[in-house]
Amino acid sequence: MLTIEKYQKEFVTYLESYSVSKEPYNLYNPIQYILSLGGKRLRPVLTLMAAEIFNCDYKKALDAALSIEVFHNFSLVHDDIMDDAPLRRGKQTVHEKWDVNTGILSGDAMLIMAYQLFENYDTSTFQALAKLFSKTALEVCEGQQYDVDFETRNDVTILEYLKMIEYKTAVLVGAAMKMGAIVANTSQEDQNNIYAFGKNLGIAFQLQDDYLDAFGDPKTFGKQVGGDIIENKKTYLYLKALEFSNETDKLELSQLFNSNPEDVATKINVVKQFFESTGSADATKQAIQEYTNKAFLGLESLNISEDKKELLKTFGNSLMNRTV
After folding, report:
1. Residue 221 and residue 277: Cα distance in Å, rounded?
2. 120 CB contacts (<8 Å, ≥6 apart)?
3. Quick check: 222 pLDDT over 70?
4. Which SS3 state, helix, strand or coil, does residue 82 take?
5. Measured torsion, CA atoms of residues 88, 158, 316, 83, in degrees rounded to the nearest 10
């Protein structure tokens, strides 16, 4: 087994060899651009790691890992259009650097290119990867639609929010790990168990992201702290604060999340005070730990050595203790 940093380095080297510089340039240059913007490369690393967990050379999983990364970036291009976001990883978004039509078409091409990468595997592996990919891609779209719907709803429940982040974020983490298991040709039981581990870790990861958005260190977080509050996003923190508030505080918090004042700094500070005073911040940290523990519990059923289970736990804990 390699270190996380080594998997990242190996994957980035492979990604850089995946040249899409060809005509028409206005279709492929934006793809090259978004893929070169960096990021944690979390999902492809999980694919490589999962392959080796099940005693397969990680290099055999590079195309599956690349497919996951191409698909993830496709979703970011389209998400940025929907959110009218000007920046991605500190750089201009594709639709800002080119235009909306280019972003839509280049994104569409990336989805197709992600599928094409499965053609490098034998028939049975191709079928298993494509079947999982189709299911996951559709769920990600469903999650995105739930997220959009929640923007105009004031009756979103905790269960609905958890379902949204499961589909929008967590299923892709689970799929990344299951793809590694598929390439390793392991049992269906192990494939499903590693998927469950990844999915629960993905939910914990997103809840941690919600928490860091409000309480992260601006120097290390990499995004504007309080961004979800400015955008009035109904995160787990917000929904728990409503649940724990009396009627007066609930009304004030709801009004804050239906307002767009010029003084955003004051709004952020007031909302964060609500998150802390109601116990929402602590409840969110507890939920992060619960989903992490749920992921770790699922490892017990995997037919792998204790050393490898500990490696996965170490990786999970590193995600949950991150500041970015």
Report:
1. 23
2. 63
3. no
4. helix
5. -10
Both tokens assigned to 188 = 């269906």
Dist. CA 247–CA 124, nearest whole Å: 57
Q: What distance in Å separates the CA atoms of residue 96 and residue 3, rounded to the nearest whole number? A: 36
Residue 140: band (very low, low, confident or very high) from pLDDT cuts 50, 70, 90: very high
pTM of the predicted model as reported, rounded to 2 decimal places:
0.93
Tell me which residue of 52, 53, 65 sits closest to 13, measured CA to CA. Answer: 65
Asked whether residue 324 carries a pLDDT value surpassing 70, the answer given is: no
What value does the mean pLDDT take over residues 76-86? 92
Please say whether the dihedral angle defined by the alpha carbons of residues 274, 275, 277 and 280, taken in this order, is positive or negative. Answer: positive
pLDDT digits (tens, 9 = 90+) for 235-249: 999 999 999 999 999
- Residue 274 per-residue DSSP state: H
Estimate the crossing angle of helix 158-165 against helix 123-150, to 10 degrees. Answer: 140
Mean pLDDT across 57-68: 98
**Residues in the chain, how many?**
324
Tell me the C-alpha distance between 176 and 132, whole Å.
Answer: 10
- Cα separation, 53 vs 184, whole angstroms: 9
